[in-house]
């Protein structure tokens, strides 16, 4: 339902922004466990999609890194630059050039650049973009076929567009995130899911600042969710038993409560195992064996106090997953670095592993 709704929205969105200088929404991408085919025990029941935003005519987006820090917690600002369109045409008409047209002509034609609408200073503002996107969805709703059978109710949110869909006793929660792509890669900077805004963990960002609520409105966290979803699609095409790896991941995430291990940790572990063992050897008869093999992989990582972030500097990454060149040259990020620094945390992690093994 969510995927079909977003397909219906897209042409309406593009029609609404066609004669404006607002960002241009692109085809939505399903992200998170619901679209990857597995869900942790504590899944919040929200179906999330990411809508890439392209710059409007006469504008360009430039991603500027705010602070290097930990790779999995990088944040960016999206600088908006005006570009000359004096020699450009759209639908056979000459485009206004915000760089070279007189202010009088722009005022007369009632045209405002993106810098004057959704930006704070020279940077794209997440909250202003969110408010605009809400209005876009509200205006488009009556023009999609789903409006005849579903009832849409918006939820208040400052960094994403969240709404309920209801039809009789059936209902589902949809959250639309929006973001800007790193070049032509599968990595984005994006708005934040509600769970992050409320201080929880996130499927969008591997690691977030503790007080996400106080993040500046021009700050866009980096997300690997699209690349991860693409990886699981790649594995499904290669796997003899299409969903066996997802069942493996689901079994673990359903037994994690109270152990201290997050579902994102297990996701990284399972993705590593999937690239170190030939997929032809995965079978239903060997399912329990693969559960134990995955446990053994985690145990080695805990003993060594080292678990590489799956997507960064991974030479086994499928070629179809496109990373920015700079990310392929980075040193791998150790997700267990805190265990190496804190003996107490390492001892507790080993005890949690023993508890998980017993379960």
TrEMBL record:
Which InterPro entries is this protein grouped with?
ITPRIP-like, MAB21L/cGLR
In which domain of life is the source organism classified? Eukaryota
Q: Which GO terms describe its cellular component?
A: membrane
Q: Which residues form a coiled coil?
A: none
Q: What name does the UniProt record give this protein?
A: IPIL1 protein
Q: Which organism is it from?
A: Elachura formosa
Which lineage?
A: Eukaryota, Metazoa, Chordata, Craniata, Vertebrata
Task: State which gene encodes it.
Answer: Itpripl1_0
